[in-house]
Design goal:
3% helix; 41% strand; mainly beta; 3 domains; six-stranded mixed β-sheet; 48 strands; Methylamine Dehydrogenase, Chain H
Length: 633
C-alpha cells in the first residue's frame, strides 16, 4: 500500500482514530511544502553583536534598506563591519508592550508605537524627524490610505493631507480631519491596517471600517463588529501583501479584507479555542504573537508557554498555499521574527529569521543544522567575511589613598585584515591584557577661591585600558535542527463492524524528495584584486567549499504499534533496519528510497522520522507498507 504526497499537516484538534487521510500526528521543527513534510528551520547567526532588549525588536523594509527598531533607537545593519549602528535615537524609551507600525506617504516613511512620537524618515535627505504638532492624543499606530497618513490615537483616528504626512492641522479644503473613537465606545486601540478601499481601526470594543469616498470627508465610517470578535491583543493581528488582515480572537482565527470578518483555519482555531487559550491569562498582551513573511508565505503563531511576554518557546507555522494541510511547528526559543537586508555574499536579499533570548538574529537557511551562539565558551568566533568584533569590557573604578579613579574605555576600531587567510577568517580572542596609567596616583586638589564655586568637589582620576587581542582559527559551532514527525495513523482493518483487526508490518519503503538539496555556499572562484590566489586557474578546486554537502536521506525511522492510536502497544516500537541486499537504480545512485525491515504488530501503526543529530534531515515524499493480517483484539 503506497502513500505518496498524501501527508497533511499538524492539526492537534482531530481525533486520530477518526482520520481517513494521513496526518502529521506530532512533531517538532518541521514544515510542509508542495512536496511534503520536511525537517526545517536550519539557521545561521547574522552577527554576534547582541541586540539590547530583543523582545522589543522589529524590522521594517524601507525601500531596499531595512531598519531595526528597538527600545532605544532605529538601527541599520552595516555590511562592512557586520554590526548595527544607530540612525535615530528616541527621545523617550520605546518600552511599551505594543508593536511598532509603519506607513508610506508622499515618499516618506512613518513609524510609531504606543508612548513614542510619530517618527518621519525622508529617504532623499536621510533625515529623521519627530512629529508632535497637531497629533491629538497618544499615538498608538499608523497606516496609509488614499495617499493620506492615518494616525490612530487614544482619542481619535486622524488623517493628513494627501501626499503630506506632516500636514495634520484640521483643514476642510484639504479634507484633513479625524473621527473620535467614542463612536465605538472609546475602546483601547489595538492597531490600524490598510485595506484595498480604506482601512480598519481595531479596538477592544470593536472594529471601525473607514471606506474611501468622494465627499466633504474623505472616509465613510462603519462599525464592522462589536467586542465579541475583537483580537485578543495588539500582537494578534497581521496584514498580508494583499491587504487582507488575519487575527486571533478568543473564538479562533478570523480574516477580513474590509468586510465583516470570517472564520479562518477553523480546525486549528477550534483547537486553540478549546485547548489552548483557556489555559492562559489573556490580559498579558504579548504571550501570543502573530507574524507573517510574504516571501515564504509563512503565517506564524508564537506561544509563550511560560506566560512571560515575548518569551516564546513554540510557534505553529502555516504554509499558506497548503491551506488546512499546511501546519508545521517551530520549537526554538525566540522573542519574535524579523529580517536582515544583504547586498553581497551568498545570502543577497531580505533574509528572514528569528531573534533569540540573547539578542542574536538567526536567519533561516537550508542547512541541516543550527548555528549556536558562543555564550559561555572561551572565545567568540567571527563568521566568514566578518572582520570586526567589539568585545564589551567592564573596567571598574578603584580607590587609591581615598581617591576614586574612574575608568575610561579605549577600543580598537579596526582589525588588520591582512593577517587573515582567505576562506578561513574564523577567529577568536585568546587573551586580554590591560595597561593602566597612571601606575601611581598623585593627589591634586583644586583650591577654593572666595567668590567662586569649587571647580572640583571630590578628587577624580581617569584610567585608560588598552586591549590586546590575539586571533586564531576557530571552527563554527553547529547544533542539530532537532526535528521529528509522527505520521499516521496507518490502519489496515478491512471490516470496521467486526472486532478490531490487527496487522503485522515486516517491510517498509520510505522515499524522500526526488532531487537532493544543495547547501548554499560561498563562491570562492571569484577573483578580486585582494585575493592572494586566483582560484579560476583550476577547473577543479583542490578543496570542496560546500557544494552537495548533504542530501535529504540521513535520518532515523521508527515504527510504533498501537491498539488505540495513542499509546504504544506492549513493546511494539522498533527502529527500522535498512536492508542492504536490495539495490535499484534510484536507491543506489541517490539514496532517495530506503528499504527497511521490521516486525511490528498493532491495530494502528505510526511511523516516526527523526533528524536529531547534526546534519540529519528529511523531506518525505512516499511511504510504501505491505501489511499482513495478524489476528483480532
Amino acid at each position: 500500500m503506497t502513500f505518496e504526497n498524501q501527508f497533511r499537516g499538524l492539526i492537534p484538534a482531530l481525533d486520530r482514530r477518526q482520520l481517513v487521510d494521513k496526518f502529521i500526528l506530532d512533531g517538532q521543527n518541521f514544515l510542509l511544502d508542495a512536496e511534503g513534510p520536511f525537517s526545517a528551520f536550519g539557521s545561521q547567526l547574522v552577527t554576534y553583536e547582541k541586540i539590547r532588549s530583543p523582545e522589543f525588536a522589529q524590522t521594517f523594509r524601507v525601500g531596499a534598506k531595512l531598519f531595526l527598531l528597538t527600545i532605544d533607537a532605529i538601527f541599520e545593519f552595516d555590511e562592512n563591519s557586520h554590526l548595527y549602528f544607530p540612525r535615530f535615537i528616541f527621545s523617550t524609551p520605546a518600552d511599551a508592550i505594543f508593536p511598532w507600525s509603519t506607513a508610506l506617504v508622499g515618499g516618506k516613511f512613518y513609524f510609531v508605537k504606543k508612548g513614542v512620537n510619530v517618527i518621519e524618515y525622508a529617504p532623499l535627505t536621510e533625515i529623521f524627524t519627530e512629529l508632535t504638532a497637531d497629533v491629538v492624543g497618544v499615538a498608538y499606530a499608523v497606516t496609509q490610505s488614499g495617499g493620506r497618513l492615518i494616525i490612530f490615537t487614544d482619542v481619535q483616528t486622524q488623517w493628513s493631507a494627501i501626499d503630506d504626512g506632516d500636514d495634520l492641522a484640521i483643514d476642510p479644503d484639504k479634507k484633513v480631519g479625524g473621527q473620535l473613537n467614542a463612536i465605538i465606545g472609546g475602546g483601547t486601540p489595538l492597531g490600524v491596517y490598510q485595506t484595498s478601499d480604506g482601512f480598519i481601526a481595531y479596538t477592544t470594543t470593536g472594529l471601525l471600517k473607514f471606506t474611501i469616498i468622494t465627499a466633504a470627508l474623505p472616509f465613510r465610517v462603519d462599525t464592522l463588529i462589536g467586542s465579541e470578535l475583537v483580537p485578543i491583543s495588539p500582537y494578534a493581528i497581521i496584514a498580508t501583501e494583499n491587504d487582507e488582515h488575519i487575527y486571533l480572537a478568543k473564538t479562533g482565527f478570523f480574516i477580513t479584507s474590509g468586510k465583516k470578518p470570517e472564520p479562518f483555519q477553523q480546525l486549528m482555531g477550534e483547537y486553540l479555542r478549546r485547548k489552548v487559550l483557556p489555559l492562559f491569562d489573556l490580559t498579558l498582551p504579548a504571550i501570543f504573537r502573530l507574524s507573517y513573511n510574504a516571501d515564504r508565505q509563512w503565517f506564524i503563531l508564537s506561544i509563550a508557554e511560560g506566560e512571560q511576554n515575548y518569551k516564546y518557546s513554540k510557534a505553529y507555522v502555516l504554509y499558506l498555499p497548503k491551506g488546512d494541510d499546511g501546519w508545521g511547528v517551530f520549537n526554538e526559543e525566540h522573542t519574535g521574527f524579523g529580517e536582515l537586508a544583504l547586498t553581497q555574499g551568498p545570502f543577497i536579499g531580505f533574509n528572514f529569521g528569528f531573534f533569540d533570548f540573547n539578542g542574536g538574529l538567526h536567519h533561516f537557511v537550508n542547512f541541516p543544522h543550527i548555528e549556536q551562539h558562543p555564550d559561555g565558551l572561551d572565545g567568540a568566533k567571527l563568521p566568514s567575511n566578518f572582520h570586526l568584533f567589539h568585545e564589551s569590557l567592564d573596567i571598574p573604578s578603584r580607590i587609591v589613598n581615598g581617591v576614586t579613579i574612574f575608568a575610561t574605555h579605549g577600543q580598537l576600531a579596526t582589525i588588520d585584515e591582512g593577517q587573515f587567510t582567505l576562506g578561513s577568517d574564523l577567529y577568536e580572542y585568546t587573551g586580554i591584557a590591560e595597561h593602566i596609567s597612571p601606575q601611581t596616583v598623585v593627589e591634586v586638589h583644586q583650591a577654593s577661591i572666595i567668590g567662586t564655586p569649587n571647580l572640583m568637589i571630590t578628587d577624580t582620576w581617569g584610567q585608560f585600558a588598552i586591549i590586546e587581542m590575539n586571533w586564531k582559527q576557530y571552527t563554527p559551532i553547529f547544533g542539530s535542527i532537532n526535528s521529528f514527525i509522527d505520521i499516521g495513523l496507518f490502519r489496515f482493518a478491512v471490516d470496521e463492524t467486526e472486532a478490531a483487526e490487527m496487522s503485522l508490518i515486516t517491510e517498509i519503503i520510505i522515499g524522500m524528495l526526488d532531487d537532493p538539496a544543495e547547501e548554499e555556499f560561498v563562491d570562492w572562484l571569484t577573483f578580486t584584486p585582494e585575493t592572494n590566489e586566483d582560484w579560476l586557474n583550476d577547473d577543479l578546486p583542490d578543496e570542496d567549499w560546500g557544494i552537495d554537502i548533504f542530501t535529504f536521506t540521513n535520518y532515523k525511522a521508527t515504527i510504533i504499534g498501537s491498539l488505540d492510536g495513542y499509546r504504544q502497544f506492549a513493546n511494539q516500537s522498533q527502529i527500522l533496519e535498512e536492508r542492504t541486499d536490495v539495490v535499484d537504480e534510484e536507491s543506489d545512485t541517490t539514496g532517495r528510497s530506503k528499504y527497511f525491515t521490521c516486525y511490528n504488530n498493532g491495530v494502528y501503526h505510526i511511523i516516526r522520522i527523526e533528524a536529531l543529530d547534526v546534519d540529519q534531515s528529511f523531506h518525505l515524499k512516499v511511504i510504501d507498507i505491505e501489511p499482513k493480517p495478524s489476528g483480532v483484539v
